[in-house]
Amino acid sequence: MSPTVEHAPADTPPDTGPGTGPGTGPGTAAPASTPDPRTDAGRTLAGVAAERDARRAALDVAENDYAAAHAAALEAGWTAAELTKVGLGQPDARAVRRLRRRADAAAGGAA
Question: Which domain of life is it from (predicted)?
Answer without folding.
Answer: Bacteria
